[in-house]
Write a structure and sequence with these properties.
With 368 residues, this protein is of the alpha/beta class. It has a domain at 4-229: Rossmann fold. It contains 13 helices and 14 strands. Strands 2-4-8-1-9 form a 5-stranded parallel sheet. Strands 10-11-12 form a 3-stranded antiparallel sheet, with helices on one face. Strands 3-5 form a two-stranded parallel ribbon. A hairpin with a 2-residue loop joins strand 6 and strand 7 (145-148). The termini are far apart.
Length: 368
Amino acid sequence: MLCGNCKATAATTARKAFSTDDWKTFLLRSIGIERAGLDDRQVNALLLRMVPFVERNFNLVELGPRGTGKSHLFQQVSPYSRLISGGKATVAQMFVNLSSGQRGLVCQYDVVCFDEVSGISFDQKDGVNIMKGYMESGEFSRGKESIRADGGIVLVGNFEVDVSHQQRVGHLFGPLPPEMRDDTAFMDRLHAYLPGWDVPKVSKELLTDHFGLVSDFLSECWNQLRKQSRVSTLQGRVFFGGALSGRDTNAVNKTVSGLLKLLYPGDAKIPDEDIEWAVRVAMEARRRVKEQQKRIGSAEFRNTHFSYVMGEDGVEQFVVTPELQSDGGIGDDPLEPGQVWTISPGSGEEKWLPRLISNTTPTLVTRC
């Protein structure tokens, strides 16, 4: 038997034999998923599900259709996660039992997942507030003692309607219980909103018959990766736009760190394209949280135009959430540099609304 650290080292060595794309396929096969036939967004969503296992105090919400295996990863793959079915919990169970001094689930497990989030309830009225404080700082106070823990909080649940209808009648946190549904402060504690509608339904074709890492080996590797961080990888290589608040930046950093640890479990040099991939996935997942806050408290959260620049001389790139985009309309996100919408009178009653795109081409200069 290998110790946890030895298993992580073995995974790091093995990673060198894979390309990034092949390693993503290998990770998915290790949790029983066959990548063939999945598009990039589906792969990204499945990888994002793994981030709470490798990043300390990572808070994730996933809402979407039934039958996509939302709770499978937290129930069947890793012994370091605990699934609370039905969302019923006590403060003593989650945090600390004041009578016996027994530490709760957030101290015992890397991830605590609430299944069927609409039914979340605590035996005490301040249970949600205690959890909200813990999700912010990783600490909670019970009695005279302040206790720190590393367990992340994951909330999973189902939409009863499709995403477009949910956005017409409210916001994408609609399935949450009343005490969380319209609480923008609670939403701010969530580092990422995983779009469950991007995850394919579990079927025979989705399950793999290829080899992957054994579950106990994989879970030990993930547990060891929690001791590391990849945030320093971003320094001097990625610059975030002004729309990101302090909490937004922290959320994006944690998500990027988790994604990069999944792709690069060792200390290998990470290429810019993989860093940019992680930044785009992380920003979209965080912006989805911000867009729902905007629908509830529009004045405070009005600027949701998340952007980044790769390198000091790079071009500012904006990240959008696809469910807010419309093929037949113009969004309120800024266009990329060199692009502008204009209007043409056309002929008769027809009006044209073209988008002008300018490109620069290298000029060959010769000297006489």
